[in-house]
Design brief:
The chain is mainly β. The protein contains two helices and 39 strands. The N terminus is likely disordered.
Length: 512
């Protein structure tokens, strides 16, 4: 009788894929007892999220909301957990740390009795937490079992006064090894920090590269930055170079380990917000959700490859796609950051910006982000919109309130239909859903549905029902001291499921 160990290997690979989102299935040598056929999608069983340290102001108040959509367990028998825990205390990065790896590991350990800042108990109902002051650390979170597929967390900080004032929102990020941040700055009016958070039990080593309008901003200081285990560090990017530039692209990579990365911007006149990473370099990019009342919009793009990029600009509005007069094209030189002031491009109608190759046969990959300002004079506020991927099967954004949310949905290609579900509230309420049809080449900006009998905050989940890809963003507005503070979060696919090869057993190769 032939060995059936290969069947066990295949089953093990499928189980691994469900946990990690990755598996490779090879045919065993000496004859196959199974062969790969179709691919199935299985729910992930473990997800990590990282929330950066919320700020440097004693006046800050931060709210955390965690959420997992209902119906994402895929039959999981594991109840699971989903918690956001405080990291070791954050600090400024030191590139000359000579301590050994054991010291770095010990420094980053969290106490066994640490109480979670947020602990999610069940899918479909948000859980909340809060922090205050400048000393609040980064949070490191893990979700398992039926709470893992689609798990999301929102960090929303309110700073009422000072240079860093604003409503700072960020969807907590997954750890990775490569990040691009267009629209940062080393100008004298700006104070931009790169926040790095390490979720693992060993130290990570990161490099930060800066690119301005004339190319690379050389600096040895941004190389070999140690991020201790279970900790976060912040780096003031203006200390990495002697050159002041209005438009800077930040590139974060890791030599060892992985990190969560985000840029916290602060401006003397327009306040502060988080800049999250752009979607991976691509020839066509979508930047959804430019508010209708934007008074200033600046596009920043970067071409990381060896070729220059010539981009055509399209504004996708309520009625269709138009080419903005006077802003038809943007030339981006290789390894140089390009900026374009689009002013009040939306002119009272919410829209999304799409970047396409000027020549279809020459699609040079780029990354991009928008710096969006609302208000005038002393009442200006800023937010950032990075290029983002489509909603895909499902995407979620947490921390919506009874008022102040606007959901932008754009279909850059074919028309599409999506279902938007407002979850139960963190303190009570009944979920409601609504279906929206988005015409091809348009943006639909809506006041999203609100749960019946809402108490607390709630989450919005967008699911593609039919048609082409849909890109989405949520604008959250809060009036503080007479100023309409706001923040924008994009909604890329939550990757709550992973494609796993299924095995088709060939019983004819088994001996009796």
């Amino acid at each position: 009788m032939k060995s059936t160990s290969s069947l066990s290997l295949i089953a093990g690979a499928v189980a691994l894929a469900a946990v990690t989102g990755f598996a490779v299935l090879n045919e065993p040598s000496g004859g196959s007892t199974a062969e790969a056929s179709t691919a199935a999608r299985l729910p992930v069983e473990r997800t990590s999220l990282l929330c950066p340290a919320p700020g440097l102001s004693d006046l800050s108040e931060t709210a955390y909301t965690a959420f997992t959509p209902s119906g994402g367990s895929g039959g999981s028998t594991t109840a699971g957990t989903a918690e956001l825990l405080s990291s070791a205390k954050d600090g400024d990065a030191k590139t000359d740390d000579k301590s050994d790896d054991k010291d770095k590991k010990d420094k980053g350990k969290k106490g066994k009795g640490d109480k979670p800042v947020v602990s999610l108990k069940e899918p479909g109902k948000p859980a909340t937490g809060e922090a205050s002051g400048a000393d609040s650390p980064a949070l490191i979170g893990t979700a398992t079992g039926r709470l893992a597929p689609g798990w999301t967390a929102q960090q929303t900080t309110t700073i009422e006064a000072g240079d860093g004032r604003g409503l700072l929102g960020i969807s907590c990020t997954t750890p990775d090894t490569d990040f691009w941040f267009p629209a940062a700055s080393t100008a004298k009016s700006r104070e931009d920090y790169v926040h790095l958070t390490n979720p693992d039990d060993t130290a990570a080593v990161a490099d930060i590269e800066l690119y301005g309008p004339d190319g690379s901003l050389k600096s040895d200081v941004g190389e070999g930055i140690t991020v201790p285990a279970g900790s976060g560090v912040r780096v003031l990017i203006s200390t990495l170079t002697s050159k002041a530039a209005d438009d800077v692209t930040v590139h974060v990579t890791t030599r060892t380990g992985r990190v969560g990365a985000a840029v916290r911007t602060s401006d003397d006149k327009t306040g502060s917000d988080w800049l999250t990473a752009s979607a991976e370099p691509a020839g066509t990019l979508v930047l959804p959700g430019v508010p209708a009342d934007a008074t200033s919009v600046r596009l920043v793009a970067f071409a990381p490859g060896d070729d220059d990029a010539d981009l055509g600009l399209k504004l996708l509005g309520k009625s269709g796609a138009v080419t903005p007069a006077g802003h038809e094209e943007l030339h981006v030189k290789s390894h140089m950051t390009a900026g374009m002031d689009l002013k009040d491009i939306t002119r009272g109608e919410a829209g999304s910006l799409m970047l396409v190759p000027s020549e279809k046969s020459r699609a040079t990959p780029v990354v991009a982000a928008l710096r969006v300002v609302r208000g005038k004079g002393d009442e200006q506020e800023v937010a950032y919109i990075p290029a983002t991927g489509p909603v895909g099967a499902r995407a979620t954004v947490a921390d919506n309130r009874s008022k102040g949310s606007v959901l932008s949905l754009t279909a850059p290609g074919a028309a599409a239909t999506v279902k938007v579900t407002a979850s139960a509230g963190s303190g009570g309420g009944t979920p409601v859903s609504k279906t929206y049809k988005i015409a091809a080449g348009t943006t639909t900006a809506v006041t999203p549905p609100v749960p019946t009998g809402l108490k607390g905050t709630y989450a919005l989940t967008v699911e593609t029902q039919s048609g082409g890809p849909v890109h989405a963003a949520r604008t959250l507005t809060e009036k503080v001291n007479g100023i309409q503070m706001f923040t924008v979060q994009t909604l890329p696919d939550d990757r709550g499921t992973v494609e796993v090869p299924t095995a088709r057993q060939d019983l004819s190769v088994l001996d009796d």
